[in-house]
Every structure is written in structure tokens, then in C-alpha cells.
Amino acid sequence: MELRTILRPECTTCATPGSKKKVLELISDLAAAQYPDLSSQAIFESLLARERMGSTGIGNGIAIPHGRLPDIDTPVAVLIKCEEAIPFDAIDNQPVDILFALIVPADQCQQHLSTLSAMAEKLSDKQVLKQLRKAENEQELYQVITA
Fold first, then answer.
1. Are 135 and 83 in contact (CB under 8 A)?
2. Distance (Å, whole) CA 44 – CA 141
3. How many CA atoms lie within 13 A of 113 on its CB side?
4. NCBIfam families, from UniProt (predicted)?
5. Is 12 left (phi over 0), alpha (psi -120 to 50) or beta?
6. Which residues are registered as beta bridge partners of 102?
7. Residue ranges of the domains in the chain?
């Protein structure tokens, strides 16, 4: 899947959310603002439910929060670069500063898994990660991740 089809520039931001809960709320608000059919609260609850099963912090300062919603028909992505890393219960116990969130239709399990896998692979590229961390604004962040 072409990343530009699920990640809009408006869903890419540099922020200082301060906590895991606040960054999940920010993800929910950004996605809901761009997709009126989505409820910010429903997105938040979906992300939180997934986090309760185990942290989506995959290490190296990266988290890939994700959730499924029955009321949507296309995936929605959000990319956040935290100005200050936040505690996220990652597998390496390190704070997180890059988050790629994915909200998918409940019935698209395989697409969900392949998109998550592709994003994890892209974020494991040290050069991409370095460029994301050096990005000074949303436009640069979006350009790096969609290149």
C-alpha cells in the first residue's frame, strides 16, 4: 500500500505530548479531525485497548500504536515526532519520540498486519530514523516518511 494513501500531511506533526495517554489522545484528535466519520473517543479507546494487551513501543525510541474500528472503510495513519521523548513501556524500556499510528477497518486484518510490518521495517532503517529525528517541521517529517 502506498503510504500517501493513508497518511495525510495534516496527520503528521511535531509535538510535546508529555505522556503516553496524551499522545494517544493527540493521535485520536488528529485522525478524527481529518476523517469526520471517526469519533476521537472511539479511536482513543481502540488504541488504549490495544496498549492494554501490551505496549506497541517496539524499541529504539519508536512506537506503532494501532487499533481497529468497525465504522471505517479505509485505513488512517498518524505520524508524530515528540520534541521530548515520553515513557511508553517500550520493550527496551527506553522512552519514545517517533510514533506511527494506524487505525484500520475491523475486517481488514491482513492489510493491517502488512502495513504494520512495512512501517516497522521502514522505521528500522537507521537513515530514515535519523532523518525523522532531524526533521524541523511537519512538512519535512511527511516528506521523509513518504519518500
1. no
2. 23
3. 3
4. nitro_reg_IIA
5. beta
6. 66, 77
7. 10-146
Quick one: pLDDT at residue 112?
Answer: 62
Length of the chain: 147
Between the CA of residue 57 and those of 61, 63, 69, 95, what are the distances in Å?
8, 4, 21, 9
Spell out the residues 6+ positions from residue 101 whose beta carbon is closer than 8 angstroms to its own.
27, 31, 47, 64, 65, 66, 77, 78, 79, 80
Known catalytic residues?
66
Backbone angles phi, psi at 6, to 5 degrees: -115, -15
Rg (CA), the chain: 14
- CATH superfamily ID and name for 10-146: Mannitol-specific EII; Chain A (3.40.930.10)
Taking the C-alpha atoms of residue 24 and residue 5, their distance in angstroms, rounded to an integer, is 22
pLDDT in tens, 52-101: 999 999 999 999 999 989 888 888 899 999 999 999 999 999 999 999 99
Q: H-helix or E-strand containing 121?
A: helix 109-123
